[in-house]
Amino acid sequence: MPRSFHVLGFGALAIDDIIYVDRPLTAGKGRVTERATDHGGNVATALVTVARLGGHAAFIGWLNDQPRADVGGRELERDGVDISFAPRHPSAAPIRSVITVGPDGDRFIAYDDDVLHGTSEALPDDVLTQAPVLLIDGYSVHSESVVARARALGLSVVADIEWTVGAATDRIMALADHLVLPLAFGKSYAGESDPAAILEKLWSAERSAVVLTDGDRGSYVRQKGDAELWHVPAYAVRAVDTTGAGDCFHGAYAFALAEGKRPLRSVVYATAAAAISVTSHGGRKGLPDNHACQAWMMSENAPAPVLLTAS
Asked: Residue 51: enclosing H or E segment and its boundaries?
């Protein structure tokens, strides 16, 4: 059946107030060098990434029903993300975040997420079947039945989870066949410190892939039908701003998956995309196109996957 989109997604949609400072975040104090306001959010920025890469993406989370109040939705639409299927509610609003970025590109995010999360339980099946991939984040615990329907309809569910709220998070992670998680969360959730042990702990017969991301140390991968565990090193780049790098990774991974790539190759593609994204200020300004990703992947110094052995 023809699909209208590569990736659907619902989850965090944010407006970020970004402050750049002249000293590392650990210094305690520093001078402000620049201020900016940008749009962000895990799933929202990931869907913008899909659009920048040449894919078709749709946001299907809650948006405000008044055009003047729907700031986040209008920005998504300007960035090439379809919002026509998003359910509407008068109290829907973006998360508000304040992000402090140090001279090394490292950042601290403080957010107010007391907003309407998830999506409508009445979202029709014929909307869900318009893409092969559904991208969700930790806020999807508010719409578990929609995630379950997506899996039953045959969609690949890519889960970007950074924290747990207990049993509800456990159920979402069980439904997702592609776990793409920060290594730090994987360590706390699995109770293990070794990436190989975490990959094993998070694996199940229903999984297609588990990916653990670790910033400039690369990613760790287990994929279905492959007896090996893999480490994909990161590119050696000078980071200007790491805001949105993880979201870029998730969007590029989901897009590559929708294009028919295996999880390991999707991680290789996402690694290039995320590396490019950190070379510019802001969470979306540095998002790459497909041509840039392909050029980086073909460069002489492009990192290649290596076998992972337990430490």
From this structure: helix 42-52
